[in-house]
Each structure stands twice: as structure tokens, then as C-alpha cells.
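User: quick one, fold this
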Amino acid sequence: MGALTAGVSKAALVALLVAIAAGCGNDAGGADEESSADTGSEATETGPTTLPPCTEARHAVAFEIVGALMAVDEEFNSWIVDGPPAPRPRMGAAELTKTYQAKGYEIIYFTLAPSSLAIGDLLVVDALNQWLDTGGFARGPRTRLFSPSPEDRVDEQPALGISDELVRERSQGVITDFAYGNSDDKILAFQTGGVAPDHVFSLGDGAGANGSVTIPGDDLAAHRATVEALPKVCE
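Assistant:
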């Protein structure tokens, strides 16, 4: 599957995401009536569908914080060096994470800033957790933030920390179905960590890299409408 372009219709993108979700191990019995209508199939009354508990069917979505969730990468660098103001969230990013959360997905936030880095009086993990809270992003026990420690080969190839963490997640029964990033190295790290190339959504300079799927115009608000059509993966 190649990169999507702005000319692809919303209906086609909806069908793509539903097909991807169906291929990611979702055995919940298919899409609900609204999803069936969006993909052009007839909705039938089959009664309530029993979904597996989220403690057993563990699916996740990975987000690169700086590249996918912040509006401007350089604002993160300025935040580190000069302090406030904090970077602005990308429009529609917080709502997108909450949409996935409502579908039963766990949310994994990634930063390649080392865990020892300080932003003002806070370590980077604490500063970013506050940023996520303030920005209204998906939070709770089924969300977490990864920042590499020295043993994660930060100095050699920073993005390897992402792929290593996704492998660790898989060993604990967490399948990462989708990922979002905006640079070639991080997109490749998501894929190396087990996310299918065409399940990685790309923005900015990384749009379409390594067979990832471009989000037209970097418009996460419009993209969220297609995610809303996905079936839930667990209850």
C-alpha cells in the first residue's frame, strides 16, 4: 500500500482503516452498524457483540510526541533551552488519542529525549506528563510515556529505543497496531518494532517514508473522523 494523497476520498480512507483494524487480530465479530454503513455494506441486526476484556486483548497505538503531537518541532527545543512557553499541541492531536482510547486501545507516548534531561525544574518525563495533562490528551492507567535511559543506546542510534520498547511491549502481550511519527528514523523504528509499514501514519518531512501512510495536509482533525469508524477492540 503506498502513501495516501490529498486526493483520496474520506470513504476510501475509512475503508482502509477498518480493513487494517480487522487485520490486526480483532476478533470482535467485525465493525458495528455505523462502520458497516461507512464502508458500504449492509448493516444487520446480530444482537450485542461480546468483546474480550481489555486486560486480555491488549492493542496499542504509539505516538511520537514531538513529531506527531506537537505543532512545531522547534518549539520543543526552545522549551528545553529557554523554558516556557511550552510547545503548542498539534490541532486535533489530543482528540485523536482519546478516540483511540475509547476504542479500547492502549496509548504509548514516545520521546527520544533521554530520561536524565531536565526542562526547567522538572525531568523531561515529568514535564511531558504535565504537557499531556494540560493539552487534554488521553491519560489513565492504560497510557504510558517512554523516554530512553542510557542503556537504550541513546548515543548510538536514538530511535532504537523505540523499536526496543515495542519489542518489550510485545513480549508482555501488547500488540501495537498503529503508530504516528514525522521522521524517517522514527518511522523505521516503529516498523522495526513490529508495526506493519502501512500501519504507520506519517506527517511533515517523514510523509510517506518507508511505505508509511501519509496524513494529507498533516490534518489530524480530519484524520480522526476515519478512526472513529473503527470497531472497538475490547471492553
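User: anything notable?
Assistant: The chain has a mean pLDDT of 83.
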